[in-house]
Design goal:
CATH topology: Growth Hormone, Chain: A
Mean pLDDT: 81
Helix content: over 70%
CATH class: Mainly Alpha
Number of helices: 17
Number of domains: 1
Strand content: under 5%
Shape: globular
Number of strands: 0
Largest sheet: none
Low-confidence stretches: 1-13, 211-220
Distance between the termini: 24 Å
Radius of gyration: 20 Å
CATH superfamily: MFS general substrate transporter like domains
Length: 414
């Protein structure tokens, strides 16, 4: 009594999607595979070119700042020019960025390419892809399955990023030297970006912005939800700044500096970390259905931030890895719930603008942080980025809950 049949439980992780939705799931998989691989090797690649930790932090900052700038630029015109067209353009810039990083070791050129292109030092989405896909996804499923779709979307992304992190060991296994192996991975990054262009071109006109069922173009930009989105964006910016202090690329480099481990071991560690993040997405939709989207966002995020601050305090590599893995098991439950909550509390014709605005706020805030991380890493044993990030994230969680605890999405009003 009171239990669900097994088939019903399984169905909770198999959302109904249109053909466009399935293409979006495929694009996020191949893209985050490339981003996951890039993030693990990027710090080591730049160091092999002779860059200092401060210079590496500057490149990471430029990459995150560039992601914010391109997200703002592309999402502002996506509805007018067409989402498919803008996504193809962004994929083209991603290919150009990978090629440029493989061909130059000049710090000014690397920073310039990071600013105008698409490079991810975090292992997560960079550029406008996530914002535009986030606006498309509610149009590929029902309102009742919206959170489940976002959870599954992030599950696919995190799983692919985990496999990408694991793939960094392949060039070494094939006999390539370190620098040649890094450049081989950058070449694969370019190939993935070119494949994305072909996939985005297969999307139907149904992914474009329309107002209701009238067939008219939706009103572009924020209007009646501006206040809500502004407050959300401000809080998301604090969380993003804290998260960027410990992006995956910098964590990988910190483990290398602190414990002397090499790229093969780093790949295995971040495969496990991303796999646990992926598994955590399975719990997001059912947990949100039981306790609410906002409560899921906050009360799973809090303990993960305590674990984050404990990572540099561990005296041995196994204990530090254990803290990192435990943190990753909880840290991503807020991602699909945050996306679903944002899309739920704004009008349908504001979703693209809301996704872009909140993404820009996050990216802009995160673009500043790696400069500080690069300086803090001069003394790896202190682990300052971990402790500062954990403290800021706890403050974000508590403020978010106090500010929005009375604003519920439509499905929770009853």
């Amino acid at each position: 009594m009171g239990t669900r049949p097994l088939s019903k439980v399984r169905w909770q992780f198999l959302p109904d999607l249109t053909a466009d939705g399935r293409i979006i799931f495929l694009t996020v998989a191949v893209r985050t595979f490339a981003f996951g691989s890039l993030s693990v090797m990027l710090g080591l690649y730049l160091a092999s070119l002779g860059l200092s930790t401060a210079a590496i932090g500057a490149v990471f900052t430029a990459a995150l700042a560039g992601s914010a700038a391109t997200t703002l630029a592309y999402t502002n015109v996506a509805d007018a020019l067409g989402r498919r067209r803008v996504l193809c353009l962004a994929a083209g810039m991603m290919a150009a960025s990978g090629a440029a990083f493989a061909l130059t070791g000049s710090l000014p050129l690397l920073i310039l390419v990071a600013l105008i292109g698409t490079i991810s030092p975090s292992g997560k989405d960079a550029g406008p892809f996530l914002s535009i896909e986030q606006a498309i996804l509610p149009q590929t499923t029902s309102n009742q399955q919206r959170t489940l779709v976002f959870a599954t979307y992030n599950l696919v992304a995190s799983s692919a990023s985990a496999l990408g992190a694991l793939a960094v060991a392949l060039p070494g296994l094939l006999g390539f030297g370190a620098l040649a192996g890094y450049r081989l991975l950058l070449g694969a990054y370019v190939v993935v970006a070119l494949a994305l262009i072909l996939l985005f071109a297969q999307l139907s006109p149904e992914v474009e912005t329309v107002a209701g069922g009238s067939g008219k173009r939706a009103r572009v930009g924020l209007h009646k939800s501006r206040g809500i989105v502004t407050r959300l964006a401000a809080l998301f910016a604090v969380d993003a700044f804290a998260g960027a202090l410990v992006v995956q690329g910098l964590i990988a480099y910190w483990f290398h500096l602190r414990f002397g481990i090499e790229i093969g071991t780093l790949g295995a560690i971040f495969f496990g970390a991303n796999l646990l993040s992926a598994l955590s997405f399975l719990a997001a939709a059912p947990l949100a259905k039981r306790i609410g989207l906002l409560n899921t966002m906050v009360f799973t995020h809090l303990p993960s931030n305590v674990l984050l601050a404990l990572v540099p305090l561990m005296p041995t590599l196994p204990l530090a890895v254990a803290m990192l893995l435990a943190r990753n098991l909880l840290s991503q439950l807020d991602v699909p719930t945050r996306q679903s909550y944002t899309m739920a509390v704004v009008a349908p014709d504001e979703r693209s603008a809301a996704a872009g605005f909140t993404s820009v706020a996050r990216n802009a805030a995160s673009s500043v942080a790696p400069v500080f991380s690069g300086v803090f890493l001069a003394v790896p044993a202190l682990g300052l980025p971990f402790m500062i990030a954990g403290s800021l994230k706890v403050a974000y969680d508590l403020t978010l809950w106090m500010t929005f605890r009375r604003l519920r999405p439509p499905e929770e009003e009853a």
